[in-house]
């Protein structure tokens, strides 16, 4: 069963929690009890496919779904042709004691696919189970990665419609092309005249407008969100920690039971929190190392216990980690305080009103035991991309490079020799401009198109351009609507063909 991190009384089934998304008191749904694995669970995972491992892990959390339902959801998400690696999330040995868990073989070349391919399957199944008839309208404001991953995940999924708003001049050319060429009959992509905050504020206003929502309900529509506050986006991510461990055992890199460290490039704290659940379930994890860029709010928090969002926002080479409010931290705090939802609620209220809160010493001690944290600058990130390519012939995207360097620094400073898995969150091709500049030492693409840049990068790193990115050049543009930010509510109604 699932409860709100802020204490609303009702316990919900997984299907109810996934269909609701966010708890009525503004909290996030958390499992009332974290399931634990028994002795042979890991042994049994070793010979299995990713899909089978996913079903085995998900069955422990989605106890109101039948095994057949879970298996069908998993097949729909990770089945034939969706991922360009048979292993779905392969583990690569880069050097002695350091491995990369590649989470970017899905349709959009970034790790959001791991969750956003499965969430729609879980949601549709949930709607059937609870008898919800309304059409679920997913509104997304995106700075790039989430929008495209949501479009791919919800494309032609029954009983759902997706409307993505992106800032007209605020996404990379590849990201824009990925979205405006999107195929599917249940989705719209709309450029907003403004920046990401304008798009996000517009979406939030729609969500919070009671009269507007009532009008939608009357027409059989219900708004929902695809971001990582939904339990259905978090639970798929627990799977790849288990799968990575099983792969290490299978390839005889470690013996069953030996602990490993995971280093996670972190923004909203969703990815690394999934690792925390895996550890609590009994997966042999020693440390979960939190890697940040110069938006180092989490480094400070995990080190000192003070969460302080009152700081300058930096645009970095790793834009998907340019975040000052890590919403999934709320779930961690709930568990670390032993489910003290009144305390969690108080901290979140302080964050809202003053922009900061400080946790108690015992809670901080628990964090210190598990979550080393550090950050690196853009300069160091670029140097890391270049160095790892030279020394190990392994290309890193900027987010993964942050994690790599934090892992190196941690190992040196702590003397901890535990095998390390770097959680790799994007293909280097997705951030080709930064990667090319790091590898060639030149600052600009010198007027090249994105596609020429992709081909040049392919030559330098001697790896093929992911087909979905290469194909963009020849795909027809299908979405051309541009709107002013104040017109977003009217645009949604128009897209839903309501008056
Ligand atoms: C979203 C994203 C992250 C951050 O993940 P969180 O779950 O928000 O911590 C890191 N790298 C890439 C490439 C991403 O798209």
Automatic annotation (TrEMBL):
Single GO MF annotation: threonine synthase activity
GO CC field: cytoplasm
Keywords tagged on the record: Lyase, Pyridoxal phosphate
Classification via SUPFAM superfamilies: Tryptophan synthase beta subunit-like PLP-dependent enzymes
EC number: 4.2.3.1
Statement: the UniProt record of this protein carries the keyword Lyase: yes
InterPro entries named in the record: Thr_synth_N, Thr_synth_N_sf, Thr_synthase-like, TrpB-like_PALP, TrpB-like_PALP_sf
Residues modified as N6-(pyridoxal phosphate)lysine: 112
Entry's Gene Ontology BP terms: threonine biosynthetic process
EC primary class: lyase
Cofactor: pyridoxal 5'-phosphate
Annotated ranges, domain Tryptophan synthase beta chain-like PALP: 103-423
Residue span(s) of domain Threonine synthase N-terminal: 2-78
Source organism superkingdom: Bacteria
Alphabetical list of PANTHER family matching this protein: THREONINE SYNTHASE-LIKE 1
NCBIfam families per the UniProt record, alphabetical: thrC
Protein family: Belongs to the threonine synthase family.
Name of this chain's protein: Threonine synthase
Source organism (scientific name): Sporomusa termitida
Gene name of the encoded protein: thrC_3
